Amino acid sequence: MKLCYEGLKDHAAWEQAAVRLPAFDWKAMVAETEANPTWVHFGAGNIFRGFIARLQQSLLEQGLVKGGIVAADTFDYDIIDKIYTPFDSMTLMVSLKPDGSMEKEVVASIAEGLRAGTAYPEDLERLRTIFRSPSLQMVSFTITEKGYALTNMEGKFFPFVEADFANGPANCSHAMSLVTSLLLERYRAGATPIAVVSMDNCSHNGEKLRSSVVTVAHHWLDNGFVDDGFVAWLEDESKVSFPWSMIDKITPRPAKVVEESLEAAGIEDMAPIVTSKNTFIAPFVNAEIPQYLVVEDRFPNGRPPLEKAGVYMTDRNTVNDTERMKVTTCLNPLHTALAVYGCLLGYTSIAAEMKDPELKALVERIGYDEGMPVVVDPKILNPMDFIREVVEQRLPNPFIPDAPQRIATDTSQKVPIRFGETIKSYVARPDLDVKSLTFIPLAIAGWLRYLLAVDDAGKPMECSSDPMLATLQGQLSGVTLGDPDSLDGKLTPILSNPVLFGSDLVELGLADKIEGMVREELAGPGAVRATLKRYLNH
Ligand SMILES: NC(=O)c1ccc[n+]([C@@H]2O[C@H](COP(=O)([O-])OP(=O)(O)OC[C@H]3O[C@@H](n4cnc5c(N)ncnc54)[C@H](O)[C@@H]3O)[C@@H](O)[C@H]2O)c1
Ligand SMILES: O=P(O)(O)OC[C@@H](O)[C@@H](O)[C@H](O)[C@H](O)CO
């Protein structure tokens, strides 16, 4: 069985393999998308295929929309060449149930995949045509937190961003510049309104996306590439809106066990790849069943009826509160603590970590004891129910093949949100003392210890990719396991950097505590475990 339009014609074989097929006319969907595109998505990776594309599939199956989504990638063209094109942009979605069984379905709501880069003029021209089309209602993104960043840790523009400012809309490469150039096409073709929606895990994601796009536009205005009218249109939220959103569905990298199960069922060519840009991707996506998407309802050119696919459409404050609840308290801080300590302790499974008494206690202390006192109740989801589902059902699900190494990717970009926001909330609350925090500092200490790339057994350990890895490892060079004094003076510049932690931890009086913990973890092999035991009273 082959995953593609022709391959799906053998209905009986797919039925035999217990794979649900799309219940709509795929050719008609592709033709409608070409004629009247409504939705473009940037970041053609796993969460998009396993969650967002399924929303449109549900609407197609309910007969509520006729067209599909156009997927685009500005960063990793292998995804399109190797995972989209050979499979007619279809995905084999595998939902992993808590009893170990798998639900399989073909997601076919992506009409095409495009490489958004000047090296691919045909694809870029197709995108320009789509952006000029008045039917286009929304552009969404899952490009990771770093995809929005224009500046480095010192607040200076990256050289490739400077190059985009100088070269202008016809010859740019960064995701934010490319999107701005495509919005310029739309402006010049009649300036029909549009919604530009970040669906990444970052606080105030809509604000972050807007700020980067508007910054690019202002530089192009200064350099004479665009006129005032374009910038005014872009900044008019009734014309170009940047709704905020919160997205949640644990979508691990493709797992061997799932690949084997699909191959055993007779489905061909399911092998995962790691692209040259380090994306772990396969023709299939494996993910848990729980999923939450909350979106600010500001779509000036209309939108698909997403609420009919289970999306919460609401106001900005509710999105903000829901996102803060998940990303700063109830899920992601626990994930990052499990990521760094899991790598140090030799784990490759989050579910296995949840059986480790110290690690389970650590996430409970971070979540229930330190996070919950400052959690905001978004009302549409109950924080206590949410965190309980995370701690008791989602993280320990042994059939979710999630790994601390995936979650440890780009930790430097996540720390200010995942831990920094709770730290700021403690500072803002007169009835709370930020110095009373222990387990969030312990998680930060674990990350600093992780950066040494030596595990708790004293063996070399590969750190996951992170745009700040080289800089931070440079700042920590000379720090040695077995020699806590080698840390002397090395942490102050790191812990005082508000870009990394959201505030200056030296000024807040947390640096000594964190440094003390890192020193303990540096005592020698086994010291990480011993430190965890000591703080968690085990
Ligand atoms: N996987 C999850 O469990 C999950 C859950 C909720 C939210 N998210 C959000 O979605 C994002 C992507 O997750 P995923 O599972 O799809 O990851 P993935 O590795 O499968 O895909 C990442 C995508 O981002 C693009 N990208 C990476 N760096 C970029 C850059 N600098 N500029 C432009 N594009 C870039 C890649 O080309 C790829 O399309 C996460 O960072 C997070 O913000 C993921
Ligand atoms: O996707 P990232 O890299 O921002 O973070 C890694 C995980 O914490 C994240 O993907 C979670 O699985 C997700 O936020 C669950 O909804």
TrEMBL record:
EC numbers: 1.1.1.-
GO MF term (any one): oxidoreductase activity
Keywords, in A-Z order: Oxidoreductase
Keyword Ribosomal protein included in the entry's annotation: no
Domain Mannitol dehydrogenase C-terminal: 323-475
InterPro entries, A to Z: 6-PGluconate_DH-like_C_sf, 6PGD_dom2, Mannitol_DH/Oxidoreductase, Mannitol_DH_C, Mannitol_DH_N, NAD(P)-bd_dom_sf
Catalytic activity field: D-mannitol 1-phosphate + NAD(+) = beta-D-fructose 6-phosphate + NADH + H(+)
Domain Mannitol dehydrogenase N-terminal residues, every copy: 40-274
Keyword Oxidoreductase: yes
Name this protein carries in UniProt: Mannitol dehydrogenase family protein
